[in-house]
Amino acid sequence: MSASRLSVNVNAVAMLRNRRDLPWPSVTGLAAIAMEAGAKGITVHPRPDERHIRKTDVFELSELIEDRFPNKELCLEGYPTADFMKLVEEARPDQVLFVPDDPDQTTSDHGWQFGGDTGPLADAIAAAKDWAVTVSLFCDPDRAAPEHAARLGAERIEVYTGPYGACYDDPTAAAKELDKVVAAAEAARDCGLGVNAGHDLTVENIPALIARAPFIREMSIGHGFTADALIYGFAESVRRFRQAMGEL
Description:
8-stranded parallel β-barrel; TIM Barrel
């Protein structure tokens, strides 16, 4: 059995919990099931309005991993505001993924545009690295993006795979989008960056991606994983996604 690439995003679990003033479904409980089943770790995106993940969830997940899963990883996603950077400093996740999101966005839907003022982003990267947190930047499937990320001091990128995932019913379009994802991933590898991928990945579209880019080190999956888990359960969905990644 090879090491896992799968980081399970539990935002949707928190969103379901938040529909009621009750402690279930348990974010930490389901995160534990995923990690026990073989997931590499857990990803969360705590937004300012706490519409799904709350700050308290971040600390509870950090404690869970420290106490029970010391070989697993916690990844925080977020726009590098002062509040988010304070959370990163206090929680000290294994990895932070900086995304260029407006607070009101439903989900991350584009990568960083590197043509503007990147000073604040460079400062955030430097701060996170000072706290011994691995830094990844969310990038469009553009072969030019990784060089900019490397120049800013990032250690990894996460290639935005949303356009690829959106072509689930159009194989011709999916093949074109896959070419873009692979080109960006290869460019990142050539820049010496670690390569992650995420957004709308499923057990159906992962095999083609991993066949073309087997060097991808992490796939952060939330919506597709949760949809699968509603049918198969969290533990079985970990197995299914890892099998799709060629790990089992």
